[in-house]
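Go through the following before class.
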Amino acid sequence: MPNTEQDKLVRSLLNIINILLLVVGVLVATIIILPFLLPTGQNQSNGKQPTVDSAAGIDHTVYWTPPDIGSIADPKQKQLVEYGKELVTHTSVYLGPHGSVLKISNGMNCQNCHLQAGTVVFGNNYGSVASLYPKFRPRSGTVETIFKRINDCFERSLNGKAPDSTGKEMQAIRAYIEFIGSNVLKGQKAAGSGFKDLAYLNRAADSANGQQVYISKCQSCHQANGEGTLSQDKTEFTYPPLWGNSSFNDGAGLYRISSFAKYVKYNMPFGTRYQNPQLTDEEAWDVSAFILSQPRPHLAVPRDWPNLSLKPVDHPFGPYIDSFSEKQHKYGPFPPVLAVQKKQEAGGKKASSKAGNGG
């Protein structure tokens, strides 16, 4: 072959190699840059509901994560937020029965219910508090502020007294909750806040079955009589009491079995996360029935749920807009109750429509 033809062939091969190297370089650069272009938990939440690839069973949702307190530039604000986190994490140390600041709560910590200082996905986190409050809450029938929401937790979940809304402790807790939810757009709900949905059973939750679940899965931390495990210095609970005088009272949100079952299903036993639940649905409902059947402090709240049509299907205390018993409203089965409520709701809308049309 003449040299000129050989040179042409070599140049052609070199061009092809260069093109291939360029393509490979672009692909490598794309792989490196792509993670920085995708949204992270530090970005503002888009409030979208979880998106799951049903074929592969893969959840592609970008769940909320809180911003870093270390990013706060104002030293005074940073100090206040850090104190708020400390109060949420070790509430009892400062505000419990032997509190160093006040003695206004039962010894539990806020994070006993709001896991890891209110930052865990589907762990009853604070992700949506700043974005949704003030808001109307059917339980009180009023528009509530963040202060009201915090006070409810002290009076119900901590079975104590509401702190002064102008005091340093309340201001610090508010500052912390508002900061960690500051990356969620106003009016939107952070992905992964609240509780993960759990289907109702077609039977009543069984406390006898639940007792066996409790003994095998819960008792080692929360103890045989549900009294919890105190820290070595006895200033707070390492594992909180689930019933008895030191536990949440019957006015707390977790006294509703659906809330408690969702919480347990996706967070318990200790170390569980929503991606890897250790309890079956039946075990979660049954152990919740057992725990909520045990004695605990009572809180008289006669003004709760002024509009009975908005009362949850599993609220354990009457009166109701239906004829089902308190026992069925507490333990189920709930599908029959839901069916009647939907029928009543549809009838109410129909009557309202006729009235609006002069009928």
The radius of gyration is 27 Å. Residues 33-43 have pLDDT under 50 and may be disordered. The beta strands are 52-53, 58-59, 135-137, 142-144, 229-230, 237-239. The CA atoms of residues 141 and 306 lie 6 Å apart.
